[in-house]
Specification:
The chain is an alpha/beta fold. The protein has one domain (14-242): Rossmann fold. The chain has 8 helices and 7 strands. The protein has a 7-stranded parallel β-sheet, sandwiched between helices. The structure holds nicotinamide-adenine-dinucleotide.
Length: 250
């Protein structure tokens, strides 16, 4: 008799997802909800304005928050301290403010660093503190990007944050492993969300041609990677960065 246990182990786990109102975050929320998790979804629009409104049920809470604001982080921390605590944090919120190096403004640099890097650090720190106190382990997942591996024209700010996220993920994994808190990153390739739809058609078709799978990815394909890494099926995986990119980085 095999003792193989195929369960994800995410049923009733309390999962916090930033940037959950659209794109990859929204697909991730839907996937974790379908698996049975309790969701705490975080994003800037009100629930009514967000694409989540008609999905809202008793297994979801919504926090309208900007992850770069100290008072909003306090409200997220209070939710981590509420009944059920926190089992998983998905630092998904991210922005681009593209400009070539010589044209990039300090504001463009600072905005991207604040959302994509500083907030990942601050929320990771709050989650780790709470997970350690709870003593039942946990999982922290950070959004990187394949551009962290090879750079991207016009994205010195964005690429710096995503490479930083990979380094921070490895360091957090080393520091938190003894408390069974696993920390991993996912590096999406080009995925069909608002972020990528802003890109010129020419660049997108070039990406499709370059990809061994000859297509742009779907948000739910990134959600699956998050679900796997958060699940009991990945209990021995920490400090990794999983490329989910149709083979673009080969
Ligand atoms: N789409 C891609 O091809 C791609 C590729 C690589 C990495 N990523 C990363 O995946 C993540 C999600 O990307 P996406 O394509 O779904 O983007 P998206 O623009 O569709 O969604 C991002 C979400 O984050 C929210 N957000 C932005 N700033 C915020 C803030 N300060 N506080 C709270 N929420 C905030 C937005 O409101 C939005 O709902 C990002 O970190 C992005 O860098 C995406």
């Amino acid at each position: 008799m095999s003792n193989f246990e195929a369960k994800m182990g995410l049923e009733s786990k309390r999962v916090f997802i930033t940037g959950a109102a659209s794109g990859i975050g929204r697909a991730t929320a839907e996937m974790f909800y379908a698996i049975g998790a309790k969701l705490v979804l975080i994003d800037m629009p009100s629930l009514e304005e967000s694409e989540l409104a008609h999905h809202f049920t008793e297994r979801m809470e919504y926090i309208q928050a900007d992850v770069t604001r100290a008072d909003d982080l306090k409200r997220i921390e209070s939710a981590m301290n509420a009944e059920g605590g926190i089992d998983c944090l998905i630092n998904n919120a991210g922005i681009t403010r593209d400009a070539s190096l010589l044209k990039m403004t300090d504001e463009q640099w600072d905005q991207v660093i604040a959302v994509n890097l500083t907030a990942v650090f601050k929320l990771g720190q709050l989650a780790a503190k709470k997970m350690k106190e709870q003593g039942r382990g946990g999982s922290i997942l950070n959004a990187a990007s394949v551009v962290a591996h090879y750079g991207n024209f016009g994205q010195s700010n964005y690429v710096a944050t995503k490479a930083g996220v990979i380094g921070m993920t490895k360091t957090m994994a080393r520091e938190l492993g003894k408390d069974n808190i696993r920390v991993n990153a996912v590096a999406p390739g080009f995925i069909g969300t608002a972020m990528v739809q802003k890109m010129p058609e020419k660049v997108l078709s070039m990406m499709e041609e370059k990809s061994p799978l000859r297509r742009i990815g779907k948000p739910e394909e990134i959600a699956s990677a998050y679900a796997f890494l958060a699940s009991d099926q990945a209990q021995f995986i920490t400090g990794t960065c999983l490329n989910v990119d149709g083979g673009l980085t080969l």
